[in-house]
Amino acid sequence: MTARAEAAGTVGEEEDEPSAAALESGPPDTATGGPGAGVGAGGRGAILLAARRAFIRRPYAEVTMRGIAADAGVSPSLIVKHFGTKEELFNTVADFTLAADVLFAAPLEQLGRHLVLTVVRIRREDQGDPLLRVVFALGNQDERSLMRERFREQVTMRLTRMLKGRERELRAELVAGQLLGFGAALSIHRGGAAGRAGAGHLADLYAPGLQRLITP
């Protein structure tokens, strides 16, 4: 399969108090979104959200373009226009390259805080988590295993190559796990204190633990 890149949003300066309209709408969408997966872009974002839901919940062979189109509220022809075939659409869903580009765009000494701020921003602006969809692919032995393989190579091993010192792979795996846990916590508690907290305050609390793994 040939991976295709999806449009990525730009992560700007820190915003501690986003508007209520920017908060994620619920676990299914926030778990399956990511950079470029907002509801705009002429239906492309809606298609990606629907495709991610479909591919992580059902075997590849059971997913249809017509079903994705119905969930996204668009015509099947629009999916073909944006992505071509079902295989190409799956490759876009299973690709974490652009999410990693945004997440790792900071010096190592500042990376922990940047990771937290970036995850919060993506979730609140795009109504989706950049990484969490890989969790829902666990335990499946069909094409969805490709999502786990790509996550490891494009996220975990990329971070491993960035790190310095001893036990780089172990530290990268733990950072990736903490990021997934952070995204899960924000989904579960989206109506609680975590959902109301400013991005800067969340980073103050969560980033130091990440940073200790990045630059021990």
Description:
- With 216 residues, the chain is mainly α.
- Helices cover 58% and strands 0% of the residues.
- It has 11 helices and no strands.
- The chain has helices spanning 27-32, 44-57, 65-72, 76-83, 86-93, 97-103, 111-126, 145-162, 168-188, 193-196, 199-214.
- Helix 7 (111-126) packs across helix 11.
- It is globular and about 50 Å long.
- Mean pLDDT is 81; it is low at 1-30 and 36-41.
In short:
The chain has 216 residues and is mainly alpha-helical. It has eleven helices and no strands.
As a percent range, the share of helical residues equals: 55-70%
Mean model confidence by pLDDT:
81
- Contiguous low-pLDDT stretches (5 residues minimum) are 1-30, 36-41
Gap between N and C termini, in Å? 38 Å
Strand content: under 5%
Quickly give the structural class. Answer: mainly alpha
- Total number of beta strands: 0
In one word, what is the shape? globular
